[in-house]
Amino acid sequence: MSEVLGKKVNLLSILLLLFATWLVLFWDSVMATAAIWERSETFAHCFLILPICIYLLHRDWSALKHLPIKPNLWLLLPLLAILIFWLFGDLAHIAAIEQLATFLLLPLMCWLVLGNQIALRMWFVLFFWMFSVPEGEFLIPALQEVTADFTVMAIQLTGIPVYREGLYIAVPGGLFEVAVACSGIRYLIASLTLGCLFAYLTYYKWHKRVLFVLFSLVLPIVANGIRAYGIVMIAYLSDMKHATGADHLVYGWLFFGVVIFIMFSIGSIWRDPEPRSEEVEKESNPAVPLKTVVTGWLSAVVLILVAEGYNITAQNINYPAAPDIQSQWDLEDVSNSSWQPVFQNPGQEYAGRYQQSDFYAVWYAHSTEDSKLISSVNQLYNRSSWTRINSQAQSGYQLLEISSLDGRRRMLAYSYVTPWLQSPSNIKVRLTQALQALAGQPQQGMALVISRLVENDEDRKAFRAQAKAFFDENYQQVLNGSL
């Protein structure tokens, strides 16, 4: 054994070992992430991140391979913190947290085993690797609002009559919706990724790098607003013959290509000259004893295996019985499905009438990958027929006003209920359910929604009073009584 541990290993062997270890130990999380890259055009560029990282390492290899390898075992502390973060995401089936933690673990393992000097030299590779994580879709609602605001303002400056209702924009002869695909999230993420890479390769002064990255963030937002305005104008001037179907997506990608070209052209004006390469002493020896590497690598592997063992144990739980919601609220068996929420694979689903309002509730016994209370695919109202006009936070619940394509208005109030929390906040509920999972408890929960058509301010006032009385009740007892 001592002879084996005394053997020498080089930097390339260690990097391959670390990558293989990470891939094997987090195979399920990595494959789930790759599936998102494959099915989502927004994150298709993530397939290029690993090849780019390999290129960047090759570009700096002559300097990297002569730096000393000195494991930094203090990195076991942040590694443990990220493993707990990963447990949060995996047990609560919060893909964003799980994937962020999974891909952050590889740079931490590299830093731990290779040491400070090499990690500092390859800092951008470790940072750029994180663009593999398919994050950013939480920005879509805000980007839709910004695009709608910009488009309406530009149309008004043009002198064309325009009317906006939520995310719907009406001009003479046509009605447009600022849909998810029109939010510009694809352009923003792609622009930021390319902007960071361009800034690193082109500039060596930090203030230039920061300014160009900020430029790569602002430009696609402004450009997407101009693109949306252009699509409306093309459709309006052509009597709705052009830019109203799939062709406007083609215009969008061509426009984005031009924007990226402009961004790089402007950035190249202030390009920094290449720094002089430093001569490396020929007698430097990059090989280190295997024992030095095994200490750091094995410490990381042990921590990861402990976390994964706890993960398996925490998932062996008993599911609770479903609460009797029908008896709790004495519902009438009449429902209006035109606005009705859409929740994926609930344990129980209820719809009816409650005190002159439409009532809807779903219950989940536990969170799984395709069946969970908080999910991006769940809808609190039918988004294909209705759009949000405004939203007001209340104590313990949220008020929404939504509008249909034919001009009807509807008010809606909702909240989520778990044994530990009653709140309309997605983030609070997700974090609470993650804590439940870590404690080995089922992540059961309900979504409660009431809604009513409104025609005037008196209707709105009456619904607000009903919503306040409804959600002032402590509905946690409904769940806690069934545990």
How do the strands and helices of this protein lay out in sequence?
Layout: H1 2-5, E1 8-9, H2 11-25, H3 27-39, H4 49-59, H5 61-64, H6 76-92, H7 95-114, H8 116-121, H9 123-128, H10 140-158, E2 163-165, E3 168-171, E4 174-177, H11 185-202, H12 206-237, H13 247-269, E5 288-289, H14 290-314, H15 325-329, E6 348-354, E7 357-364, E8 386-393, E9 398-404, E10 409-418, E11 421-423, H16 426-438, E12 445-454, H17 457-471, H18 476-480
Antiparallel strand pairs: 1-5, 2-3, 3-4, 6-7, 7-12, 8-9, 9-10, 10-11, 10-12
Helix pairs in contact: 2-7, 2-14, 6-7, 6-14, 6-16, 7-14, 10-12, 11-12, 11-13, 12-13
Key features of this structure:
single chain, 483 residues, alpha+beta, 3 domains, 7-stranded antiparallel beta sheet, 3-stranded antiparallel beta sheet, 12 strands, disordered N terminus
How would you sum up the major sheet? 7 strands, antiparallel
The overall number of domains is: 3
Helix share, percent: 40-55%
The topology string of helices and strands comes to: HEHHHHHHHHHEEEHHHEHHEEEEEEHEHH
Supply Rg: 27 Å
Q: Structural class of the helices, strands and pairings?
A: alpha+beta
Measured distance between first and last alpha carbons: 54 Å
Multimeric organization: single chain
Rounded mean pLDDT score: 83
Tell me what portion of residues adopts beta-strand conformation: 5-15%
